[in-house]
């Protein structure tokens, strides 16, 4: 696969992930139940594919255990992401994901074993003033959602880097199946703890017809497809580059939130200025990369 094709896969993934925040807002289930059903549906769909079982048989047991642990991180990322949506809104939760590039720039060199690049850190930090503008424009009750979103951004950087290190040599569908199944089981084990927390809601009642349809769309088109595309792309691009591209997710999420949810009424001009700064960091990275190659 060429680098250009890998980047195309990355951006296709980001477009599809842009819908996850909207679906998370439209689905009426609490965050824990939403993620539980999402992972169960993904694991169920993938279990029907013979290719997945062939890929699983080819995996060493140690790799399966490693991927299962990564699946737990994915579950916690989604749990905090959807909690951020419920506590604030879809636009805020999506914007928090931009901080993932900062964390990826810091941890990838140590976990993947590549040389530390200052330009990655500079590009990631360039998004921080925009994020601060976003925070300053939020009401007090929404800031809790923002804080939970930052935790989600840390977790997404962690599992992206871990997938870069451990998962790129295996079949991407099989990797997805292991991570989704283990994440589902880990989340199930955590449900009593989540239910006991202040304001915790961890019921697993059957979703209604509308929620069931939205969950199926979320599982197939916003989980399996982009997850597999991103795993394939990680064979050619760095975890930092993937994480930086995720900074574009707020563009799609905010546009859809304005169109479908009317969230523009909840947000100020400072919020959109902050988002513009965050997106500027996305375009700064390739500029610095070209200058570095030309030096």
Strand-residue fraction? under 5%
- Write down the secondary-structure element order: HHHHHHHHHHHHHH
The total number of structural domains is: 1
Output the structural class: mainly alpha
Residues in helices, as a percent range: over 70%
Instruction: Give the number of DSSP strands.
Output: 0
The number of helical runs is 14
| Spatial gap, N to C terminus | 27 Å
Low-confidence stretches: none
Quick summary of this structure?
The chain is mainly α and 295 residues long.
Describe this structure in words.
This protein has one domain (3-294). The protein has 14 helices and no strands. The protein has helices at 3-26, 31-46, 50-58, 61-87, 90-96, 100-112, 118-126, 128-136, 140-166, 172-196, 209-233, 239-245, 249-261, 269-294. The longest helix is centred in the N-terminal third of the chain and has 27 residues, at 61-87.
């Amino acid at each position: 696969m060429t680098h250009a094709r890998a980047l195309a896969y990355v951006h296709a993934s980001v477009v599809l992930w842009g819908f996850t925040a909207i679906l998370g807002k439209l689905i009426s289930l609490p965050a824990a139940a939403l993620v539980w059903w999402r992972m169960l549906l993904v694991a169920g769909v993938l279990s029907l594919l013979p290719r997945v079982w062939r890929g699983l048989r080819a995996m060493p047991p140690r790799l399966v255990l490693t991927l299962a642990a990564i699946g737990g991180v994915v579950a916690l990322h989604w749990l905090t992401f959807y909690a951020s949506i419920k506590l604030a809104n879809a636009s805020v939760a999506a914007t928090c994901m931009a901080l993932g590039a900062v964390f990826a720039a810091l941890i990838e060199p140590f976990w993947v074993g590549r040389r530390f690049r200052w330009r990655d850190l500079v590009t990631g930090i360039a998004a921080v003033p925009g994020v601060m503008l976003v925070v300053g424009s939020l009401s007090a009750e929404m800031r809790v959602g923002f804080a939970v979103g930052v935790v989600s951004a840390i977790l997404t950087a962690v599992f992206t880097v871990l997938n870069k290190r451990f998962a790129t040599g295996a079949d991407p569908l099989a990797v997805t199946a292991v991570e989704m199944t283990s994440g589902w089981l880990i989340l199930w084990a955590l449900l009593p703890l989540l239910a006991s927390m202040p304001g915790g809601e961890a019921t697993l009642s059957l979703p209604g017809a509308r929620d069931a349809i939205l969950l199926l769309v979320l599982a197939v088109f916003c989980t399996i497809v982009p997850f597999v595309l991103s795993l394939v792309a990680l064979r050619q691009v760095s975890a930092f580059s993937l994480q930086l591209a995720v900074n574009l997710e707020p563009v799609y999420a905010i546009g859809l939130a304005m169109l479908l949810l009317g969230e523009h009424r909840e947000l100020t001009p400072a919020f959109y200025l902050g988002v513009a700064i965050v997106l500027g960091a996305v375009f700064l990275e390739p500029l610095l990369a070209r200058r570095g190659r030309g030096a």
